[in-house]
Predict the structure.
Amino acid sequence: MLKAGIVGLPNVGKSTLFNALTRSRKAEAANYPFCTIDPNVGVVTVPDQRLAVLQKIARTGVIIPAAIEFVDIAGLVAGASEGEGLGNQFLANIREVDAIVQVVRCFEDIEVIHTMGAIDPVRDIEIITTELVLADLEAVTKRIDKTQKKARSGDKEGIAELALLEKLAPHLDAGKTANTMPATPEDIALLRLFQLLTAKPVLFACNVAEDDLANAEQNRFVQQVAGYVHTHHDAAYVPISAKIESELVELAPDEATAFLRDLGVDDSGISALIKGTYALLGLMTYFTASEKEVRAWTIKEGWKAPQAAGVIHTDFEKGFIKAEIVSYEDLSHLGSVAVAREAGKYRLEGKEYPMKDGDVALFRFNT
């Protein structure tokens, strides 16, 4: 299962958000720096309204949603790349995740300590970015030294690696993240081998006050984040109130809906954050639907039918024959597999079929 790491400066709401995401109290949330020391891990289900529709069509009582893993990582401070605060541990923890959700404080509250004093979300983002870039620059510099000898010997892989590293070094030295460097598909494949922190995709969670959630886009701090991350990171952002989300955990679903309605919002920011993180990880969903269960299966974008079948069981991929496919849109519109067949929307696909998000599949295989 792919992991998303929740990062940020101390006391920006990371652990409160993690608790709401996982509907738990795994992470201690307190008003002092380094409240989180060891990373907390939680599995989070991905909200998907399509499951309820497929449940009615399949006439089953069992729904199994897709899931991703979130890791609550210790707060970072300036100097982390040189071991300040819990820097070394932070960098080691973040190296193990596949994507980053950076929580940025976008609310003012004199009772909640901010380690940097005044609220300035762009400054906070730059602090974390700088530390990650410095850690990557050190790693790239060391790798250049090791790769030069290999490249001088005429080794083709060494030559290609050194060329990319020598492009990366000045890019990082200019304070830019690895994932913003123009790269060919070959560069991107090679870049993965370097395991750089700033090559990981990033989503920014703007933590706003309870009163600001309904009009979060008018929050001046959110506007600052929106402009900055678009220009400097080519990344998305999601306004969320960690405080509200933690309160919703304690409520029954109907009470939570009424509570949100009173605040002037229709849906929880958690849903948008989870869905955004799922997309950030390059994931998509296909379904299986029967009287036994309706289940969402997680696959990577671009996977073909045999790979998707292998998520259910390796034997499905090894013995793959055909995939019976109908799109969710067609099945939900027509109301049943039988009608979808009659309408010509139910089809057989072979080994080269690229799966699409929302496909409802039944695999034929032999053992």
Q: What stands out?
A: The CA atoms of residues 43 and 69 lie 4 Å apart.
